[in-house]
């Protein structure tokens, strides 16, 4: 079995070394990294290697994180350069949105322009004929419904999660992925919806 260095792996995957380390950490694969230097630290080691065959696994993970299949499957309700900047655990929410858009009247001309994580919840940017009040109401309802749903789904893996209140990175995560928003702030666990309970986190936006 062949081994390659982390930096070569990152090059071949077309991502930075830091991004690769981050991916390995998020997906709980640190134990698959081999390091001949037993004192080396995962985040700074220059001697770490991975089995070359693991590249395939990372390619699949990256495709999932870039929502490659989702973009393909729902191309009819997405703008060409749709921005999908959330983690893969929210794929089911994106699918729900796309299915809903598909069933809206063709005259509304609805397309998803953006889906982005903000302050721990999912916000949507949707293009449509905004002169129509019925369309405006329905889109507003969908946005709020999805925003609320996202506050109970782990953004990383899709399991049941809750809002984690953190100084650097408030996120909605399951217990297993809670570490991604550590350290948390006092108030963590009491705030279910930052838009309502945590005034200083800001109001929900629809941009
Ligand atoms: Zn999770």
Give a description of the structure:
A hairpin with a 2-residue loop joins β4 and β5. The termini are far apart. The chain has 7 helices and 7 strands. The protein is 34% helix and 17% strand. The strands form 3 sheets. Strands 3-4-5 form a 3-stranded mixed β-sheet. The C terminus is likely disordered. Among the domains are: 62 residues; 80 residues, no CATH class. The protein is an alpha+beta fold and 207 residues long. It is flat and about 65 Å long. The protein binds zinc ion. Zinc ion binds next to loops.
User: Which structural class fits the helix and strand makeup?
Assistant: alpha+beta
Oligomeric grouping of the chains: single chain
Total DSSP helices? 7
Total beta-strand segments: 7
Mean pLDDT: 92
Q: Name the strands of the widest sheet in spatial order.
A: 3-4-5
Order of helices and strands: EHHEHHEHEEHEEH
What fraction strand? Answer: 15-25%
**What is the general shape?**
flat
CA gyration radius, whole angstroms:
20 Å
SSE inventory with pairings:
Elements: E1 3-5, H1 6-13, H2 17-26, E2 49-51, H3 54-65, H4 68-73, E3 78-85, H5 91-102, E4 111-118, E5 121-127, H6 133-150, E6 162-164, E7 171-173, H7 194-197
Bound molecules: zinc ion (ZN).
């Amino acid at each position: 079995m062949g081994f390659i260095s982390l930096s070569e792996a990152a090059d071949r995957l077309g991502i930075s070394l830091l991004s690769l380390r981050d991916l390995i950490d998020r997906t709980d694969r640190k134990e698959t990294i081999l390091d001949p230097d037993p004192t080396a630290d995962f985040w700074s080691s220059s001697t770490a290697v991975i089995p070359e065959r693991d590249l395939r696994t990372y390619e699949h993970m990256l495709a999932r994180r870039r929502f490659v299949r989702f973009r393909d499957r729902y191309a009819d309700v997405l703008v060409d350069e749709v921005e999908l900047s959330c983690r893969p655990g929210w794929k089911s929410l994106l699918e729900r949105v796309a299915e809903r858009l598909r069933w809206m009247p063709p005259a509304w001309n609805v397309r998803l322009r953006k889906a982005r994580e903000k302050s721990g919840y999912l916000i949507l940017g949707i293009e449509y004929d905004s002169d129509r009040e019925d369309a405006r109401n329905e889109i507003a309802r969908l946005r709020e419904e999805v925003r609320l749903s996202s506050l109970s789904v782990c953004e990383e893996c899709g399991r049941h999660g809750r809002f984690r209140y953190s100084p650097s990175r408030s996120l909605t995560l399951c217990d297993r992925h809670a570490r991604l928003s550590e350290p948390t702030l006092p108030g963590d666990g009491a705030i279910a919806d930052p838009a309502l309970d945590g005034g200083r986190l800001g109001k929900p936006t629809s941009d």
